[in-house]
Amino acid sequence: IADIQENIDHELISHEQIMSKIEEVAAQASKDYEGRVPIVMAVLKGAVCTLTAFTQAMTCHLEMDFMSISSYGKSMSSSGSITVRQDLTSDVKGRDVLIVEDIIDSGYTLDWLVKELKRRGAASVEIFALLEKPARRMVEVDVKYKGFEIPDEFVVGFGLDCDEQYRNLDCIAVLKPEVYEGALTQ
Ligand code: PRP
Ligand code: MN
Ligand code: MG
């Protein structure tokens, strides 16, 4: 982990701040879904850390599922064209689906996903997004469970990557400028 730490310029949100926010949101969501069994789904890969912490803090019954979606491709910003790399295994027809995302940037990924889940017949679709970058929003997305609003800076950690690395960092951080220069993808 030492070489990872050397590449960090500064920490934006600490592990403790992330965990306490996730616990707060999980308590609210557990109340809201009491008596139902939602499918809590991670948008892979970025949401993997948030899904783990969030579901462990939830107290109602739930199922987990995963969909791997990419909107960035080989660029530093969202392209708006969505690629499904791996689909859910659950049939969402008639089910309450709670999407867990690491970050909303342009909103293209979630806009597409919410429409897709409704097209498949989900009874309800809600979103928990750990991070939001309001400055970069291109499409409106209705987010019921919110984490942190962050400035328009390229961040890594807690699932978020830079060229597929840094997802294992336990906080949200900004890398040194020279690290980004060598990287092609978020
Ligand atoms: C990132 C991030 C969100 C999405 C947000 O995923 O994890 O899923 O982009 O951007 P948007 O609001 O502009 O659509 P990415 O495509 O990098 O895939 P990954 O999760 O596998 O890193
Ligand atoms: Mn993602
Ligand atoms: Mg990414």
TrEMBL record:
Any Pfam family the entry gives: Pribosyltran
Pathway as given in its UniProt record = Purine metabolism; IMP biosynthesis via salvage pathway; IMP from hypoxanthine: step 1/1; Purine metabolism; GMP biosynthesis via salvage pathway; GMP from guanine: step 1/1
Q: Sorted alphabetically, which SUPFAM superfamilies does this protein's record hold?
A: PRTase-like (SSF53271)
Q: What's an example Gene Ontology biological process for this entry?
A: guanine salvage
What catalytic activity is recorded?
A: IMP + diphosphate = hypoxanthine + 5-phospho-alpha-D-ribose 1-diphosphate; GMP + diphosphate = guanine + 5-phospho-alpha-D-ribose 1-diphosphate
Compartments reported by the entry: Cytoplasm
List, alphabetically, the InterPro entries matched.
HGPRT (IPR050408), Hxn_phspho_trans (IPR005904), PRTase-like (IPR029057), PRTase_dom (IPR000836)
**Is Cytoplasm there in the keyword field?**
yes
Q: Which GO terms describe its molecular function?
A: guanine phosphoribosyltransferase activity; hypoxanthine phosphoribosyltransferase activity; magnesium ion binding; nucleotide binding
Q: Per its Swiss-Prot or TrEMBL entry, what cofactor is needed?
A: Mg(2+)
Q: What is its main location?
A: cytoplasm
List its EC numbers: 2.4.2.8
One CC-aspect GO term: cytosol
Which keywords annotate this record? Cytoplasm, Glycosyltransferase, Magnesium, Metal-binding, Nucleotide-binding, Purine salvage, Transferase
Q: Indicate the family of this protein.
A: Belongs to the purine/pyrimidine phosphoribosyltransferase family.
Could you tell me what this protein is called?
Answer: Hypoxanthine phosphoribosyltransferase
Q: What organism, scientifically named, is this protein from?
A: Bifidobacterium dolichotidis
